[in-house]
Amino acid sequence: MKHLKTTKKILLSLSLILLLAIGCSKDTVRNPGPDPDPGSGTDSGSNNIPELDITSKATLTVSKDNPDGPNGVEGSTKLVDGDTTTKFLIKDFTTANIDFKFDSAKLVASYQFTTGNDFDGRDPLDWKFYGSNDGKSWTLLDTRMGMQFRHRRTNYRFYFKNDKYYTYYRWQVVKLYQADMFQASEFRLFQMPPGKQKLAPIYWVDSTEKDGLKLIFVNHSEKENLAYQSVLTHTFFTVYPELLKEYNPEAVKRVYFIIDPTYDGVAYSFGDVLVFSYDYMEGHPKEGDVAVHEIMHKVQNGYKGSVPSWLIEGMADYVRYRYGIDNPDSWALPDYSSSQNYDDSYRVTARFLVWIENHKEKNFVKLLDTALRKGTDYKDFWIQTLGKSIDDIWTAYGESPAL
Ligand SMILES: [Zn+2]
């Protein structure tokens, strides 16, 4: 977890919620400052309290429990049992309120989430954290969006500033990465004296809305202004509407772009999220078309049956070739060579698809996308559409591979 020396640049505040609610076309969230809600707690003598895990002093209630109940093998009591090898799991997740009630008001300004043992699609992506003194009227204390957890059964600690004592605290999990199940090994609350409170980890969120699409740009790096943020944003709002129109109008309209300094690849697509490597984008700040390949994977959601990954990746690179807007010299389709095969994936497959469209069927990929969404086997599709097997078409391509 990374901390900045300065704490004045944290994001995320009530203003984000407000700005989103009124539908601003562009919301940049910076530096919330102190909570504007005066609350009803007291703060006398608060500097004398120690920093302390006070979870065991609270009574836990959850808005939805495991089907086997709170004491089941994956029931809610496992969330606070101090054992990171057990976990709490909710099925058919929509949202969840995880509430802690204390006998007397506490000054909580930190919490710790521990990831589950397995599938990271069950990790929380967005959440809010509240305080209350009556369990009815809640004050927002912290908001997180587009969070990243690369390790299993690992503690992730979060800090915010709070000068009000509350008897109730609520962790409200709003959105998961991908799954319909939520899981967490532990969730713990920390009492924090004001002198030790901080805002961490620092991150920045910009939300942009246009033409019915919303892009939530989350920057987890320590650098506030990223040269490629505007490039990626422009690429998204230029190319994605075309892909929706051309291929799949039902694809997701609200997408996260996450800049992640802990990811050492280039980019990947997961649920509603696209993750970009911070290091890669720092080295290639003009390469907005990385996003074109990845957002095609959102369009491809809903394919039925077993579609091979080489075909999915080849189609995504085909789309980057056809719809990309920056076309850097570093990215081009490779020349044909006899050592290639159509299932080599990515650009090799992409070039084959381009060749088919130039010489055989000009709407081939659009038709292929529709067929895969209906569950048609890709080999059958080749025969139905071109009258020959994919192997025969590949042979013809090899005999005359010029585009
Ligand atoms: Zn891909």
Automatic annotation (TrEMBL):
Region spans: Disordered: 29-50
Segments of skewed composition (Low complexity): 38-48
Pfam families listed in its UniProt record: BSP (PF04450)
Gene3D superfamilies xrefs: Galactose-binding domain-like
Xref: InterPro entries: Galactose-bd-like_sf, Uncharacterised_BSP
Protein source organism: Arachidicoccus ginsenosidivorans
Protein name: Secretory protein
Keywords assigned by UniProt, alphabetized: Signal
Signal peptide extent: 1-26
